[in-house]
Amino acid sequence: MKKINYLKHDKDLPDLHFKNGYGNSVAIDLYVAEDTTIKVGNFALINLGVSIQIPKGYKAELRMRSSTFLKYGLIQTNSLGLIDTTYCSEKDILKLPVFMLITQEDMIKYQKTNSWKAITIPKGTSICQLEILPCMEEMEFNELQLEEYKKVNQVTRGGFGSTDNKE
Question: Is 12 annotated in the active site?
Fold first, then answer.
């Protein structure tokens, strides 16, 4: 079993833990470290209140919880946060980059009030998850010329979204 060192910047936040299996989360829940207000159409970095040391040979992936969009209208701006072993000092606090989408209802309200709606996500809200995974093995890249490449690669799929064999 791997041990993961982490620093909790607020003692009131839950401890990090992992419970794998049916009925339990398959990743580590992370929580909002401070009340965070976001206006419609704006970007924010949500402070998650922890610094973590990812072991050598591993990476961490930060993902939104499936309920976050439904509850708050937020999307993760890079769709996946990739954290490597070098992001590990006490100043490297995990943050979730989000954008609050604009709905038609928001546009109508803005036209009437000249003011955008804002939401506040309370401190302690479970907002995203962290999964720690092994990295890919070392690889050596071998550049080929077009004719050599065609000889070793006989599969032609035809492009994005196509499984047709085309020559």
Answer: no
Q: Which of 84, 92, 106, 164 is catalytic?
A: 84
- Residue 102 in 3-state DSSP? coil
Residue 53: both structure tokens together: 């040391």
Helix boundaries (H) for 51-145: 66-72, 104-113
Task: Please tell me what DSSP assigns to residue 144.
Answer: -
Instruction: Indicate the burial class of 31 (C-beta count within 10 angstroms; 0-12, 13-18, 19 or more).
Output: buried
DSSP one-letter code for 23: T
Per-residue pLDDT of the chain (167 residues; tens, 9 = 90+): 778 899 999 999 998 887 665 556 678 999 999 999 999 999 999 999 999 999 999 999 999 998 899 999 999 998 889 999 999 999 999 999 999 998 888 888 888 998 888 999 999 999 999 999 999 888 899 999 988 888 888 766 666 655 544 44
Residue 162's identity, in one-letter code, is S
